[in-house]
Model the fold of this input.
Amino acid sequence: MADIKSSQTIATQTADPDGLSTAASVGNNAALTLGGALTSGGSFTAESGTARQITLLSAGDDDAISFNIVGTDIHGDSQTENVTGVDTGTATSTEYFATVTSITAVGDPAGNMSAGTSVNVAGVVFKGPTRVKGLVWSGGGAVGTVSIRNTSTAGTSLIDVRSDPTLGVNAAINLAADGVLFDAGGYVTFAETDCNSVTVFHG
Done:
């Protein structure tokens, strides 16, 4: 792995389905109370260098309403997503949030609401152009895929590796010559049930 200039480690915690807001009644067009175990001062901040998809657990039939999540993306830029509710189940955001400052019902929830973090994790390798030269990743207890994506957390995956089903078992690859070019930035996505951490070597 020649000319490695830097490495980035993405590590994360277990998903918490009510880590942002514990089960409670929410009024018509009212905000959920962000006071769960993953919050501080009424807001949520993901682990350093990461962002999480947000889950919304409905105890009633909320498929005719939605919930507005406000926070920041993995770069710290403002981000808002309107997530459609579901009937007695969990809706999950498409976007990854580094912070959440509010979640507000758009309509009248039919029952108690909870909010938390999904198993899905994203991390930044490097915001600008870089070449990935190697990876080390740790199994999370199930077989899954660790993806390194170009441009954004939703961008094209240029590297996919398989996670080990044994918890804590490391695997690694070294990429020959110049590695793989990520011309618009490199981003890691994985499920924390499949992978505990990823270290990406780049330069």
